Amino acid sequence: MMRTTRLEAFSDGVIAILITIMVLELRMPEGGNVAALRTVWPTFCAYVLSFVYLGIYWNNHHHLFHVVEHVSGGILWANLHLLFWLSLVPFVTSWMGDHPHDSLPTLIYGVVLLCAAISFTILVHVIIYVQGPHSKLRAAVGRDFKGNISMVIYVAALLSTFVQHRIAWALYALVALIWLVPDRRIERVL
């Protein structure tokens, strides 16, 4: 049986690289005044939101693997599935930030966030399956209200892009606020 250390180190490295890519894609304002800042403000806001999201995933991934005793092939693939969706965050962040008045980039940003949430849920379910019905993680996760409500809000955000994409930005921020306080369910079980 494989231990979790390599998977955790690899995942930490990928998330660190994604954050680095995002910050390197930030452009400097063309001037030294407030008007120049307005031109990069949407991109900066998208960066902050995405940084928070990647931080949330890193934090919850860290907590998640505190209750994982060994890693199976299924867990490795489920983790890679999550990392795939997270790896798209710099691309959609840049696109949404550079085109703040267009609905499609905001929609695709939400699709990536929704798919990342789904893939994290899949990862949790694969771990529970591997550990068995009496696993600590199963006891910790319970009905996963925060995870489920987040996916509902993502779907609402996606639908709102057809009406007013700024609503979607607000809903994406709402989900981030919901998860800003680390998920304490795993800590309680430990």
Percentage of residues in DSSP E strands: under 5%
Structural class: mainly alpha
Number of helices: 9
The total domain count is: 1
- Which percent bin holds the helix content? over 70%
Q: What's the gyration radius in Å?
A: 18 Å
Order of helices and strands: HHHHHHHHH
- Rounded to the nearest angstrom, the distance between the terminal CA atoms is 22 Å
Question: What's the structural blueprint in terms of helices and strands?
Answer:
Elements lengths: L4 H20 L9 H31 L8 H15 L1 H10 L4 H29 L4 H6 L3 H16 L4 H16 L4 H5 L1
Description:
Helix content is 78%, strand content 0%. By secondary structure, it is an all-alpha fold. The longest helix is centred in the N-terminal third of the chain and has 31 residues. The model has no long low-confidence stretch (mean pLDDT 91).
Q: How would you summarize this macromolecular structure in one to three sentences?
A:
With 190 residues, this protein is mostly helical.
Describe this protein with a few key phrases.
mainly alpha; globular; 190 residues
